[in-house]
Write a structure and sequence with these properties.
The protein has a domain at 25-55. It has two helices and no strands. It has helices spanning 2-9, 31-52.
């Protein structure tokens, strides 16, 4: 119940959000495009983490 109250406290009466929300990195317009963008991001992020955390 508390979680539900918090959810709706973030939405104003005019339907806008009462706090800033980080925008999407990319909007592709399709589920397949979103999945491809997510897979690409995960691949790049994993490569970055592997490089950044080398012993």
């Amino acid at each position: 119940m508390q979680r539900e109250k918090l959810r709706w406290q973030l939405i104003r009466n005019d339907g806008t959000l009462s706090s800033w929300v980080w925008p999407n990195r990319v909007v592709t317009g399709s589920d397949d495009g979103e999945m491809a963008a997510l897979q690409q991001w995960l691949t790049q992020r994993t490569a970055w983490l592997d490089d950044a955390l080398k012993p």
